[in-house]
Specification:
The protein is built from 17 helices and no strands. With 286 residues, it is mainly α. It has a domain of 191 residues: MetI-like (MetI-like fold).
Length: 286
């Protein structure tokens, strides 16, 4: 009887624990819902304002207005925001691809090549992580004007084709790969570029995806450099011109432009979401 009682007691405890786990955590779910609403509130408000005129926006109308077509026509046709977005997309893709390539080559050199002063060079690369672009912007402007690149796509892309972040990211990633990969590649007669293309890149797609998202957003959000370098036909400069769309300040077209300009980065993130998240998970594990 004692054994049966103990068994029933253990079964009752297990049943109670299972029932507790099945009960919905109402408080936790409520907090998560409130957090999501707070995070989404600015986006929802921007979507609402993009369909309204100034009077409706000033009165804090919390439902869509009737100016969606007019605001879209102002942004897309009158101010030609699509051309700005195409230029920004081309610039961002070139920057992302260029930084990925130079980062891969730098990581290959720092991990698999032995040369004097390797750690000193890597140290100076790390120092550049602490230097914002604004520090070197005057020197970059002088170089751009000396080379005759002012107002061209070269002025928007070439100064940003190298990245200390990319070099550091790939260096850390390659350093955590098995060391016998390089030895096996050498035995097979592969040169460093073949080793990079056939071995390292297939093992680095998650890191490449994460870096591509970051660098695309970096290029897409650039404002000061395009404005100073003479090629201001990019989306962020185009959005600033919407502040005076028509007579006075019109908030509807400004919000419409902001909503439209946010679509390409969202699409890039959705396409590269899986490698982006895996790349950061790998970085945390290391």
């Amino acid at each position: 009887m004692t054994i049966v009682t103990k068994e029933r007691t253990a079964d009752d405890r297990a049943e109670r624990s299972r029932s507790k786990r099945k009960k919905p955590r109402i408080g936790l779910h409520l907090m998560l819902i409130i957090s999501c609403l707070i995070l989404c509130a600015p986006i929802i408000y921007a979507l609402l304002v993009s369909t309204q005129n100034n009077a409706q926006m000033v009165n804090f109308q919390l439902f869509p207005g009737e100016s969606f077509a007019a605001n879209f026509d102002t942004v897309w046709n009158q101010r030609n925001l699509g051309a700005y977005m195409i230029n920004s997309a081309i610039m961002s893709v070139i920057i992302a691809v260029g930084k990925t390539i130079t980062g891969l080559l730098a990581g290959l050199a720092f991990v698999y090549f032995r040369f004097p002063g390797r750690w000193i060079v890597f140290f100076f690369v790390l120092i550049t992580l602490m230097m914002p672009t604004e520090i070197s912007i005057l020197a970059l402007l002088d170089l751009v004007y000396d080379f005759g690149w002012s107002g061209t796509m070269a002025s928007l892309t070439i100064p940003f084709l190298a990245s200390a972040t990319a070099a550091f990211l790939f260096r850390q990633h390659f350093a955590n790969l098995p060391s016998n990969l390089a030895e096996a590649a050498q035995l097979d007669g592969a040169n460093p570029i073949q080793f990079l293309v056939k071995v390292l890149i297939p093992l680095s797609w998650n890191v490449i995806g994460a870096l591509a998202v970051i660098e695309f957003l970096y290029g897409w959000n650039m404002y000061l450099w395009p404005l100073l370098s003479g090629n201001d036909t990019v989306v962020q400069v185009g959005l600033s011109s919407l502040q005076q769309a028509g007579q006075g300040q019109l908030y509807g077209p400004l919000m419409m432009g902001a909503v439209i300009a946010s679509i390409p980065p969202i699409l890039v993130f959705l396409v590269l979401q899986r490698p982006f998240m895996k790349g950061f998970a790998m970085a945390q594990d290391k």
